[in-house]
Amino acid sequence: MLQPKTRWDIFCTVVDNYGDIGVTWRLARQLVAEHALEVRLWVDDLRAFERLCPEIDIDVAQQWQQGVEVRHWPSDWVHTEAADVVIAAFACQLPSDYMDVMAEREKPPLWMNLDYLSAEDWVIGCHGLPSVKYKSVQKFFFFPGFQPGTGGLLRERGLLDQRRQFQHDRAAQRQFLQGLGIDRAADAQLISLFAYENTGLASWLDVLAADAMPTHLLVPEGRILGDVARWLGVETLSVGALHVRQALTVQVLPFVRQDQYDHLLWCCDFNAVRGEDSFVRAQWAGRPMLWHIYQQDEDIHLDKLDAFLALYTKGLSPAAAEATNGLWRAWNAGLPIAEQWLAARNHWPELHKNAEAWCLEQGLQADLAAALVQFYLNWI
């Protein structure tokens, strides 16, 4: 059992707008709420953080939010005492002055690099291994993942029970959607779209508009809005915009905070997501999904995509697995996806069943926060 006053520092540099801060903010809150730890979250971009936590004052360098001490990571570092556990999120470089303070401690802290999420096989072999050393302080690799032998996924206590209750409560769903200004038609499928720019989008919207089944497409503020606007033939799209094209209704939503986004995913029949944090949350929704992975140099992100697909589609029939693989790969290549979407639709009941089974399978593993705490307990 951890001592209540165990202090943790989490460092985050905002690279992809919201993915990095989304993961670290969620982790920091869970460590405080479920493990009674003292957590400081160091962030170099409070303006991006404000989108996820509107209560943040971007002009204040030190503040407390939901039990977490939030500190602005300044360009000119000020002396501060090093924590018992130091997490460098996504291989960010710690301030050199802080590293010196870590080395000056009588008992060096546990220093971990919380890496990007990947389903690749090599992750299991590298998870928990020592990395570089700075003076007396040893750094360790810590990899989130989908298989035993990794650090697992972020999942708050009771999350899956909350999700199931919400998805069985039509009145609660209706109330939530109405709070966002969404009036869902009784016979319309609900799809959320949160993605990077994608030239394949127009083909998907074409087939949704021409479909016999009506679709209500919910698009939170984000980078895909420009592509949606071009397809609609309008100059810009702002929050609250509502456009109807044949069987397709497109509605632009505000950028919502994390708990609201969870509920949005839980309401939808299908979720298109991007990055890492939204990707994990869509899996906890237990609904069919489409992932737009963050593009990396030399297309190494496609190896990560294929590694996840190999795990995610393992329980599907060959035809359903082929349809899912085709849809995800075409979407991530920016290719037209009309044909692949229709192929996936042919296996809709099976895809729903697989999404729920995958969610429950992942829920059997220790969550990321608990795994980090256990790693520290083993270390001491």
TrEMBL record:
Organism the protein comes from: Pseudomonas helmanticensis
Protein name: Uncharacterized protein
